[in-house]
């Protein structure tokens, strides 16, 4: 498969499943759909998608890097259910201002910040 085709296949699978997935999960999903993309290529493709902000990446509490193709194109944060993977795209709210203030206080030029919220969603709470 050509690079563009592989990239399309990866994005399509992510849009379809619509939650944060590890590279391995994406690779498995591609195999189930008979897309011949190697795990190394999946990693490489995901990295290039993250580089152009087409895909969001975050570190889960278990230390895994998870990827998601989000609907919101502008800057946002995530509220993630650690049980089922349900994700809400949320506004950074006071975090945006706080990050700028902290950078200013220490004389840093702000280049970015990272803040994700993890929890258990209502549905999963009801189940347990
Ligand atoms: Zn996102
Ligand atoms: Zn849940
Ligand atoms: Zn933010």
From TrEMBL:
UniProt keyword annotations, A-Z: Cytoplasm, DNA-binding, Metal-binding, Repressor, Transcription, Transcription regulation, Zinc
First-listed, main subcellular location of the protein, grouped into a coarse class: cytoplasm
Keyword check for Transit peptide: no
UniProt subcellular location: Cytoplasm
TM regions (residue ranges): none
Oligomer and partners: Homodimer.
PANTHER family: FERRIC UPTAKE REGULATION PROTEIN (PTHR33202:SF2), ZINC UPTAKE REGULATION PROTEIN (PTHR33202)
Family designation: Belongs to the Fur family.
Protein name as catalogued: Transcriptional regulator, Fur family
Biological source species: Corynebacterium ammoniagenes DSM 20306
């Amino acid at each position: 498969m050509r690079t563009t085709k592989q990239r399309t296949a990866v994005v399509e699978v992510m849009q379809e499943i619509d939650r944060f997935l590890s590279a391995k999960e994406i690779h498995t999903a591609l195999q189930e759909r008979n897309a011949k993309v190697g795990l190394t290529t999946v990693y490489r493709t995901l990295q290039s998608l993250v580089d152009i902000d087409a895909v969001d990446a975050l570190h889960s509490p278990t230390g895994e890097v998870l990827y998601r193709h989000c609907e919101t194109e502008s800057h946002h944060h995530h509220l993630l259910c650690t049980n089922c993977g349900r994700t809400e795209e949320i506004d950074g709210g006071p975090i945006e201002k706080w990050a700028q203030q902290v950078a200013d206080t220490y004389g840093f030029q702000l280049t970015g910040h990272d803040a994700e919220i993890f929890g258990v969603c209502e549905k999963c709470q009801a189940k347990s």
